[in-house]
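Action item from last meeting closed. Structure (399 res):
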């Protein structure tokens, strides 16, 4: 994918100019880290294929850029939640096998079939997809989804025989082909829990029913990133690489390094103001924090409109190799850090402030401060923060 195609894509935020140009804030995405993470998993799960999951604009990293890098590194499939996400990637020129699985009654199934996008089916959507195929006089490729215990989308085991009967009738009519069966793990990020064993057993039962119904399956898939890393018995012919694609660990007490993964995102801005304040100075809305002594406060021009969790008081910001805590409430456009009493403001005004990523703290530190998970922190970084793509160096621009 060339730079012109990337710039024309509406899938992701704009590419930033070279590092020598002025900038206020950016999310730096290292595409070599994406490639590394794919290669690690490709080697781990072989001969199973790898689906690069790039829903939600590639977990905030840029769907087109991430998908392109992942395919170059050996991923065989691309996964999206919504058909509209997959269609945008098709329009940008990606022709790899692609699956979308979360539908509403307004999902453009006709467009999906015309674009050669595989469709997940949980129940009601089978009839809508068949109707679209009939209008187009072209068969749809579908993956039957089974609810093995997560309780969200997917056919229950009780409803599966009926779904298989309807799918068989549509397939005999030439309206679709059942090419896959899949499910999703609920607690694989907690390897000690027994529910994963139970889900895998139910999935085996579902596969047996689908095959007994006469469908010739190309792929079976249930493994997400924690399943990939902790349950080789879940790999089958295809695994879905989500969080691990972006170099983050799904396990609370295990770092990405232990799996050979490299975090791909660095969120960075510049210190916008520095000032000395007295003892008992209130900080930010609600004045929930007051200084314990005379100190210098630094203003960081990122807030919850940029994706920082509003409740992440105490989260770290790294400047000049040292970490400083967020004090008071995070506002829409900004937050405040305590620099301490003995600093030279000239050392901080305009200095690079790393929220998380290379040279700073892990994204997990922000997740802990906000009582959430690393998935959410990176995914919520808003389009107001430009994405800047590099290849193997945090300062070298990539395509």
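Sequence:
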């Amino acid at each position: 994918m060339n730079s012109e195609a990337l710039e024309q894509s509406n899938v992701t935020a704009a590419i930033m100019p070279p590092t020598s140009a002025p900038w206020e804030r950016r999310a730096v995405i290292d595409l070599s880290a994406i490639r590394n993470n794919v290669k690690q998993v490709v080697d781990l799960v072989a001969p199973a294929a790898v689906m690069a999951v790039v829903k939600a604009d590639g977990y905030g990293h840029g769907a087109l850029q991430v998908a392109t890098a992942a395919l170059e590194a050996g991923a065989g499939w691309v996964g999206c939640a919504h058909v509209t996400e997959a269609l945008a990637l098709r329009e940008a020129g990606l022709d790899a096998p692609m699956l979308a699985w979360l539908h509403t009654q307004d999902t453009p199934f006709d467009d999906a079939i015309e674009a050669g996008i595989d469709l997940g089916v949980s129940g009601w959507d089978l009839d809508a997809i068949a109707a679209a195929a009939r209008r187009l006089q072209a068969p749809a490729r579908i993956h039957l989804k089974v609810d093995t215990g997560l309780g969200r989308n997917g056919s229950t085991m009780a409803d599966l025989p009926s779904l298989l009967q309807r799918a068989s009738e549509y397939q005999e009519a030439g309206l679709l082909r059942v090419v896959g069966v899949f499910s999703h793990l609920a607690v694989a990020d907690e390897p000690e829990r027994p529910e994963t064993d139970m889900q895998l057993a139910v999935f085996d039962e579902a596969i047996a029913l689908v095959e007994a119904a006469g469908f010739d399956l190309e792929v079976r898939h249930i493994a997400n990133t924690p399943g990939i890393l902790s349950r080789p018995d879940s790999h089958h012919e295809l695994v879905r690489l989500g969080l691990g694609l972006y170099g983050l660990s799904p396990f609370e007490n295990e770092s990405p390094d232990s799996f050979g993964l490299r975090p791909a995102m660095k969120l960075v801005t510049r210190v916008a103001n520095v000032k000395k304040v007295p003892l008992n100075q209130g900080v930010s809305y609600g004045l929930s924090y007051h200084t314990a002594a005379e100190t210098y406060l630094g203003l960081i021009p990122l807030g919850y409109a940029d994706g920082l969790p509003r409740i992440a008081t105490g989260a770290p910001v790294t400047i000049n190799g040292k970490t400083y805590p967020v004090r008071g409430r995070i506002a829409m456009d900004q937050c405040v850090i305590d620099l301490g009493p003995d600093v030279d403001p000239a050392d901080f005004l305009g200095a690079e402030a790393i929220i998380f990523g290379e040279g700073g703290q892990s994204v997990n530190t922000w997740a802990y401060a906000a009582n959430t998970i690393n998935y959410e922190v990176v995914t919520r970084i808003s389009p107001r923060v430009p994405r800047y793509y590099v290849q193997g160096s945090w300062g070298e621009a990539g395509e």
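Note appended to the action item: The first strand starts at residue 25 and ends at 30.
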